[in-house]
Design goal:
This protein is an alpha/beta fold. The protein has 12 helices and 15 strands. A 5-stranded parallel beta sheet has the order 3-2-1-7-15. It has a 5-stranded parallel beta sheet with strand order 8-14-9-10-11. The protein has a 3-stranded antiparallel beta sheet with strand order 4-5-6, with no helix packed on it. Bound molecules: flavin-adenine dinucleotide. GO terms for molecular function: oxidoreductase activity.
């Protein structure tokens, strides 16, 4: 029996998160059959793990227009576009209904363990591009399966591979051994068992992004509540504190994202958290009563803490892509053409030029990393970026290059310019290089007005080329 022509094969999409499900919708729009493989028991499995966290984007910014068109005939109504879903809402009221309408095309409990070219490992050139892709899958029931595909869209995100506490990007000495008192997620303080773990305790929060801001705000709320007296945060930062440390505040075009930074600042100003700056965790030791002592590369040892929350970002799992010829940036592990547009050493304004299949392509034709995973280790990925990426990729796979190249994307700016600057000068002002605005002034904590002033340094119309 003749093998089906490659073009008759499905496109395998790895991951049934927002980007993966949107990819399936756009492939169907292009007349191509998708097969979505999701490791978790349900669609949106990763998003459900942060169900308790409210997004800083509104419903209007996290629903893919093409998906909405597919859902509408089913009687689905989009929630009020101006309101903010939680992760749980996003999964329940959008991702799950979308997976349901996609039906058999979404298989859950299906973990992709390897992707390659049929009969060709990474070395072999011989008519390589004429071969379909092979995808190895481990099913939750223990079965293994080998699938063939005409193209592969990896939308598996980075949620499963959080970065460690160690200041050098490696797990700190003793970090694994102290796992019973360390989490890499924003804790759900509405869960009584979790709440008891942090109430009245001293907790270190390591990291300086939206998730760290959220954790600091949650701990401050706990400290202000009846059952949270004595709750204290210790905010560990690798750099000094300056105008952009708390994000863009009112200048952020995503007000809820700006508010996160201001809430973190308030937590520090109100004394619910102490900021420890220029601290790179080298070791996590356990003292006599089991509490944890963070030791810094500079020899500093912090007072013991009861718990540690590590929110230092994410990194892509590339282990199952080892047989493919990927072109990834050495810093970010993002596609080489996309990386310069999102490099936090250069950019923090949150905007990214419209990009699509060309920026997401690799030496291996027919494979694309999209969604959160396309950003590699870079922060600032937004769902609407993923939706435009997959629209372009699906058109490219269908050969509709005119539509694939017509990428449109306008992203809300953070109101912060200049990039993250050099990490190893804790008290240096940001903006060593990076995009457009002048470096913000260092701000003394406890003087709320200052942050506003720093944010006002941003030139009208935000930053980066606008
Ligand atoms: C706490 C938090 C808040 C955020 N808030 C916002 C916001 O307000 N606005 C915004 O625009 N963005 C936000 N984001 C960023 C981003 O939009 C989300 O992370 C979004 O979920 C990314 O979608 P994704 O489909 O790329 O990845 P994910 O949602 O992570 O989905 C990937 C899926 O792939 C599955 N998977 C992983 N490995 C495999 C494998 N080997 N085989 C099969 N399946 C696999 C996972 O189980 C998961 O379900 C937030 C992110 C976080 C973590």
């Amino acid at each position: 029996m003749n093998a089906p022509a490659t073009t008759e094969l499905p496109v395998v999409v790895i991951g049934a998160g927002p980007a993966g499900l949107a990819a399936a919708v756009h492939l169907i729009d292009q007349g191509i059959e998708p097969l979505v493989l999701e490791a978790g028991p349900t669609a949106g499995a990763a998003v459900r793990e942060w169900a308790h966290v409210r997004l800083f984007s509104t419903w209007g910014e996290v629903v893919d227009p093409a998906a909405e068109k597919l859902l509408a005939p089913t009687g689905w109504t989009r929630p009020d576009p101006a309101t903010y879903p939680s992760g749980g809402d996003w999964a329940e009221f959008y991702l799950q209904p979308l997976a349901d309408v996609l039906g058999e095309r979404v298989r859950t409990g299906a973990t992709v363990t390897g992707v390659s070219r049929a009969g060709r490992d990474r070395i072999v050139d011989a008519d390589r591009e004429q071969q379909p892709f092979v995808v190895h899958v481990a099913h939750a029931d223990g079965r293994e399966e080998r699938l063939v595909a005409r193209a592969v869209i990896d939308a598996s995100g980075t949620w499963a591979t959080p970065s460690p506490a160690g200041g050098s990007g490696l797990p700190a000495l003793g970090e694994k051994a102290a796992a019973d008192r360390i989490t890499y997620r924003v804790p759900d303080l509405k869960d009584p068992a979790v709440r008891a773990r942090y109430a009245g305790k001293r907790t270190a929060v390591i990291g300086s992004g939206a998730s760290a801001f959220t954790a600091l705000a949650y701990l401050a709320d706990l400290a202000k509540s009846d059952d949270g007296a004595g709750t204290k945060g210790v905010w560990i930062l690798r750099r000094g504190i300056s105008g952009s440390t708390f994000g863009g505040g009112e200048a952020d075009q995503l007000p809820a994202r700006g508010a996160l930074g201001l809430a973190a600042k308030a937590a520090v100003d109100e004394g619910h958290a102490d900021a420890v700056t220029g601290f790179r965790t080298e070791a996590i030791e356990r003292d006599t009563d089991g509490r944890l002592v963070l030791a810094g590369e500079d020899g500093r040892r912090l007072d013991p803490v009861d718990e540690v929350i590590v929110l230092t970002g994410f990194r892509p799992d590339l282990t199952f892509l080892g047989e493919l010829r990927l072109g990834l940036d050495e810093r970010l592990q993002a596609p080489v053409a996309l990386a310069p547009l999102i490099d936090p050493n250069q950019h923090s304004c949150g905007t990214v030029y419209p990009h699509g299949h060309r920026e997401l392509s690799h030496p291996e034709p027919g494979v694309y990393l999209v969604g959160m995973k396309s950003y590699g280790r870079a922060p600032t990925f937004l769902a609407m970026t993923g939706y435009e990426q997959v629209r372009s990729v699906a058109a490219a796979i269908a050969g509709d290059l005119e539509s694939a190249d017509r990428v449109e994307l306008t992203l809300p700016e953070t109101g912060v310019c200049g990039g993250a600057g050099l990490f190893d000068t804790p008290d240096a002002a940001e903006g060593d290089g990076g995009c457009c605005a002048p470096a913000p002034q260092l701000v003394q904590l406890g003087a709320p007005a200052q942050v506003g002033a720093a944010a006002e340094q941003v030139p009208a119309g935000g930053c980066c080329g606008s």
